[in-house]
Amino acid sequence: MSNRDEHNDPNISMYEEFQLEIGENEFPKTGVSARSAKARLEAHMWTDANPMLNLSSFVTTFIEPELKELEGAHAHVNYVDHDMYPKTYDLETRMVNMIHQLWNGPADVEPYGAATVGSSEACMLAGLAHKWNWREARKAAGKDASKPNMVTGGNVQIVWKKFMKYFDVEAKIVPLEVGNYRLTAEHLDEYVDENTICVVAIAGQTFTGEDDEIQEIHDWLDAYEKKTGISIPLHIDGASGGFVNPFLYPDYEWDFRLPRVQSINASGHKFGLVNPGLGWVVFRDKKVFNEDLIFYVNYLGGESPTATLNFSRNAAPIIAQAYQFMRYGFEGYKRIMELTMENTVHLRDLLLESGYFEVMNKTQRIPVVALTLKDHVKNFNEFDVSAKVREKGWVLSAYTMPPKAETVVSLRIVVRAHLNKHVIGQLAEDIINACKYLEEHGGTATPPALHSHDKSSPKC
Ligand SMILES: *Cc1c(COP(=O)(O)O)cnc(C)c1O
Fold this sequence. Notes:
The structure is a single chain. This protein folds into three domains: 3-48, no CATH class; 68-324, Aspartate Aminotransferase, domain 2 (3-Layer(aba) Sandwich); 333-441, Aspartate Aminotransferase, domain 1. It has eleven helices and 13 strands. The chain has helices spanning 14-19, 34-45, 65-73, 86-102, 119-140, 158-166, 214-228, 245-248, 316-353, 382-390, 421-441, and strands spanning 112-116, 149-153, 170-174, 196-202, 234-237, 261-267, 279-283, 295-299, 302-306, 357-359, 368-373, 397-400, 409-414. Strand 5, helix 8 (245-248) and strand 6 (261-267) form a beta-alpha-beta unit. Helix 9 (316-353) crosses helix 11. The longest helix has 38 residues, at 316-353. Bound molecules: pyridoxal-5'-phosphate.
């Protein structure tokens, strides 16, 4: 293979372009033609997974051509420049209000929230708001404010462990149990105390798709306040559930209808149906987001507030979210979620009928199938199944559950809106055939070694 960096011959065939290198570690000395750069990069990435078959991920991979066009046309817009792009900025405010309403926020308050790069940034902002509020209240009461902690279940997504480490908040993580992979109120008394900045409960967890026992946790915190006088806010991590629950389960109270829920995050790029990266954090009331966290900057002439971890960012995902809200409306999202859920149940049923699997989730709220092999399966494991179906192009997550449920391995399939019944049928067949093959020939996979501080963290 030659590295013809200076090659810019417009007559060179694409076959030859594909042979050219993209450069290893050295910064390229000279440039190449646009055609050549595109061809080389495309060829470089051909062996990546097909995103449509990557069912280990919650992130949206299909968008309409009209939306692609719209996003492309605004890809250069720097969202943070509110002064130059006030109409773009205005979309965020409108959508924060819409989402606040979607999550049943009280009508008599001023909603507040932000578009972020993803739920991770949204979670960090919510965590910071609670840390600030807690510290302020402690100081005002003349109490020690040096030991903040946060209480979560062992099923939390990695972002919360990052938050606690990066922002110096003690992690109080309630371990899971075999057969119960959700945070409940059962052990909270061993974890919650006066230094707890908030409890995080999940709507649509990454491991099994289930919701934590949100109502029960809420009521426990109410009782705790009655007993001790300490009021602890609840944050809901609705990265996945935030754009599913409102459409499928309007009567289910997981959101701001519960008074203790002070903030909620969701990933616009998961069931919000936009491409990566977009997240949302919405506070019950503007007052929850501590004013001290807001900076006012002079940016190209105007003074504008900024209260996100990132500064410059692409406006396209925000515009895309506005498009999707308008394009589908409540009825459209509801229909899409219903269809996706039908396909999920169909897949789950086909796999259960095979006799190899049992289902891990007690409730089925978001379109996730979380399975584990039955006890009678001895000579292969979930990692083998995941590796075997990879031969057919499918990407499925297999992982060891977090403490103290490490004896359980899960095979997780995220059913997204672009999949149809036919594809689901093919997937089920490929998984069952993989099991049959493995039953006969035996599996060889050993679970990957886990890092001590990061036991099990599925992809999102
Ligand atoms: C995906 C996910 C996150 C992280 O969200 P990103 O949008 O990927 O940053 C956090 N919490 C839960 C429950 C998730 O599913």
